[in-house]
Amino acid sequence: MATAVEPYLVKPDRRFVETIIARGGGDLKHCFQCATCSVVCELADSGRTFPRKEMHWAQWGLKDRLVADPDVWLCHQCNDCSARCPRGARPGDVLAAVRQQAVRHWAVPRFLAAWVADVRMLPVMVLLSAGLLGLALLAREPINRAMGVTEHHGLYAEFVPHWLLNTFFPLFTLLSFGLMVVGLARFWNAMHRAENGTDRGTPAVGIVPSIVRTITTILMHDRFGKCGARADRRWTHLAAFYGFLALFVVTVWAVVDIYVNPVLGIASRYPFGLLHPMKLLANVGGVLLIYGSAKAIVDRRRTDAEVGASTAFDLTFLWLLFGVGVTGFATEVFRFAVAPTTEGAPVTAAYATYFVHLVLVFQLLVYLPYSKFAHVFFRTLAMVYAERTARQRLGGGVTT
Asked: Please, are residues 27 and 93 in contact by the beta-carbon 8 Å criterion?
């Protein structure tokens, strides 16, 4: 027996259509609903409605449906659909543009997402980050005196004390993550509301198994293995992903080593030596991050159908990852090449490089909910939802 579906009032958003076209989906209007994209997509499964229905909704300007559609996030832009589209409509690029607009729609506050997506605002964003860090450094000595802190260890600790570093970044990062959680909660609720009156949103799997399956898929990046046109992108993404993950683990361990280990009676060994396991992990992670981001940047310079359109939204994030990796290694070189007691140009160069590195890290973490980095969290949430509702095993969505 067919499931009754509530009537849907079509409210076309012309501005949304124009934005999708401007953000990389320039050939959207070429689509004439032949469903070739759904046939060739390995992620569409049995229903074969994806990404045909998304192309249909995008042509009609159904923004409310698209920003609440988990299927949009199940796409990894392998561009098998774009390479085989007989009309050159490039569904992969259209879905990438839709994801960018979804990030902006759910962002809190939205104007920051608009800033991050606009390359003209990049200098403003960088200056804002540098200004906030500069103000923190100006307050360094007064707070040092008030707290009675007189001892620093290492070259960079003389410039940015550990307490300042581990207060400044967590403060802004936690604020940013808190705002992102609000946006993710709104997205989760919107996915449920969008399927009101259908059986598509009914839980079929427990939340814990859904999370475990999703994490396993992310760690393996196995869905990239289903790509035909650009299967090599799996290794590029794996390098950048595990590079960042390794650096995150090292950062957390450094904080534990500085603040927790002494309380437990364990002597702190920070800053780590070159042969310390955490330093080795950091260096391997840095190499992977630089390789993955550089390879992605080079790949996006190609113009064939398999690559997909590149926008400032994508490239800014990739260059930011690359910059974090390169300046991280540069600060490491200065740390081992310049003695803490050295004065003059070498120390100035070391401090300047370290300051640039910290600004780039700030850009990466604090603007996360508004940049391409947010894809990690929106895609993860959509994948958990898809697992929980057995969405993909049922065919990937409601036909139009």
From this structure: yes
